[in-house]
């Protein structure tokens, strides 16, 4: 299986063959879990530490469950009450953790680049669970697996990513992944929520939902990230929903078999109409949550294999 990475810090370093290898393994885990299997031993001799400097429900619980299903010893640290509050630097924290000899370190941090800095200071495999506005690689991978399962392929699709692009690390990772897999990506949203330099992203940009969703195979809605906004990016939530919230009338411009996605948590009636979110014929939002566990299992499994190989004495098979 072709996967050469020592860490999973972002989508950018991944080759298409590595993305496919990870998704194939995740598919196997997903199917086995649906058949009733809940335990594996891929990480049975390993320790996984979760460090979430930002609050999370879906991502943290998904990583915890993934590690436990693979047999790891899993520890989640309450970073809001950690020594960082007492003045310890991020590097000092990394060195302290490294002295505990963990095997896998899962990190979410509000600052872009913080996870990469940690990875430079430790001897274990590091997985980026979201860093600032930079990347959220496992979210893009679980989105990719969900798309592949629903559409039967992950290439030559038209994908509309709609909403708060400027503040979204999910959008950035998805743009990178979908581009690597030869898809047509369309960013849809108000100009105030488009990132600087968007014309250099190799994507189409629309500020009108009807044009943006025209003939789309996949409609991916994004959360309004008000916690990252420091100004008036939208006139009001009501006006935002009127122009950019996904409802039946707007969705009608996509292909009849288009699927609807959202990384969560959803603001119903702001980014998406509740009826659309709950439509079992169009919405794959719940499957995204399910695929999150499978993708994180696959990522940790592959990184653990490479870690064992790197630690093995020269000439000895891991």
Task: Give the SSE layout.
Layout: H1 16-34, E1 47-52, H2 58-69, E2 73-77, H3 90-99, E3 104-109, H4 114-119, E4 125-131, H5 137-151, E5 158-162, H6 169-180, E6 184-188, E7 204-206, H7 209-213, E8 218-221, H8 237-244, H9 248-251, E9 259-261, H10 274-277, H11 285-311
Parallel strand pairs: 1-2, 1-3, 3-4, 5-6, 5-8, 6-7, 8-9
Helix pairs in contact: 1-5, 1-11, 2-11, 5-6, 5-11
Catalytic activity: carbamoyl phosphate + L-aspartate = N-carbamoyl-L-aspartate + phosphate + H(+)
Binding site for L-aspartate: 86, 169, 223
GO cellular component, one term: cytosol
Task: Please describe what this structure looks like.
- With 318 residues, this protein is an alpha/beta fold.
- The chain folds into two domains: 7-134 and 289-305, 3-Layer(aba) Sandwich (Rossmann fold), CATH 3.40.50; 137-284, Rossmann fold, CATH 3.40.50.1370.
- Helices cover 38% and strands 14% of the residues.
- The protein is built from eleven helices and nine strands.
- The chain has helices spanning 16-34, 58-69, 90-99, 114-119, 137-151, 169-180, 209-213, 237-244, 248-251, 274-277, 285-311; strands spanning 47-52, 73-77, 104-109, 125-131, 158-162, 184-188, 204-206, 218-221, 259-261.
- The chain has a five-stranded parallel beta sheet with strand order 7-6-5-8-9.
- Helix 1 (16-34) packs across helix 11.
- The radius of gyration is 20 Å and the shape is globular.
- The mean pLDDT is 92.
């Amino acid at each position: 299986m072709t996967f050469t990475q020592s860490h999973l810090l972002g989508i950018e370093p991944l080759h298409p063959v590595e993305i496919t290898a990870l998704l194939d393994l995740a598919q196997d885990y997903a199917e086995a879990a649906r058949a009733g299997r809940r335990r594996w031993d891929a990480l049975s001799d390993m320790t996984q530490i979760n460090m979430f400097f930002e609050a999370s429900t879906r991502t943290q619980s998904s990583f915890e469950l993934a590690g436990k299903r693979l047999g790891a010893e899993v520890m989640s640290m309450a970073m809001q009450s950690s020594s960082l509050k007492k003045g310890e630097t991020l590097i000092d924290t990394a060195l302290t953790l490294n002295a505990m000899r963990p095997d896998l370190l899962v990190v979410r941090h509000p600052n872009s680049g913080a996870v990469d800095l940690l990875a430079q200071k430790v001897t274990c495999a590091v997985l980026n669970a979201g860093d600032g506005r930079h990347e959220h690689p496992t979210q893009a991978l679980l989105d990719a697996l969900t798309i592949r399962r629903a559409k039967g392929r992950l290439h030559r699709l038209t994908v509309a990513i709609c909403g708060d692009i400027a503040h979204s690390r999910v959008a950035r990772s998805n743009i990178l992944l979908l581009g690597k897999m030869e898809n047509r990506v369309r960013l849809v949203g108000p100009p105030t929520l488009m990132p600087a330099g968007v014309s250099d992203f190799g994507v189409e940009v629309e500020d009108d939902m009807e044009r943006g969703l025209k003939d789309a195979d996949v409609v991916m809605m994004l959360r309004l990230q008000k916690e990252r906004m420091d100004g008036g990016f939208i006139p009001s939530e009501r006006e935002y929903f009127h122009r950019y919230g996904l409802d039946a009338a707007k969705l009608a411009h996509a292909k009849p078999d288009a699927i609807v996605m959202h990384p969560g948590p959803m603001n119903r009636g702001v980014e998406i109409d509740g009826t659309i979110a709950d439509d079992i014929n169009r919405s794959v939002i719940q499957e995204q949550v399910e695929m999150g566990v499978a993708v994180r299992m696959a990522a940790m499994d592959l990184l653990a294999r490479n870690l064992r190989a790197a630690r093995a004495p020269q000439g000895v098979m891991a």
